Structure prediction request, 125 residues.
Amino acid sequence: MSEIYWRRVTSKKAVASSTPMKNIHLMLNDLSIPHFFDAIISGEQVARGKPYPEVFLKAARRTCLVPDRCLVFEDSAAGIAAAKRAGMKAIGITNTLPREKLKAADRVVQSLEEVDLQTIAHLLI
Prediction:
């Protein structure tokens, strides 16, 4: 796959979580990855949490992306509902819920190891 195609698919990354900002920063700093994200949005920055789409729409605005060019990775049914309400694609990850609870996602996986660039490109094209 060409480098141009890779950049088009992976150009912006955001964390959009219901978790308080303090917890998000603790996790990102613990993993030494906060610099990988163009935007970080917490539940404290929105009026209504998931399943309302505000947290995802705010992340899209901060990264200057239109919602239909965004892909959300979620482990909750409310998060998938929020992504779909925002007009975004969603991949459900079964680390907290069984597959049937995440069936509204565009794709359901057991692990992020099942997601590759081709999968992402297919969902966004």
About this structure: Helices lie at 3-9, 21-30, 54-62, 77-85, 117-124. The chain has one domain: 3-124.
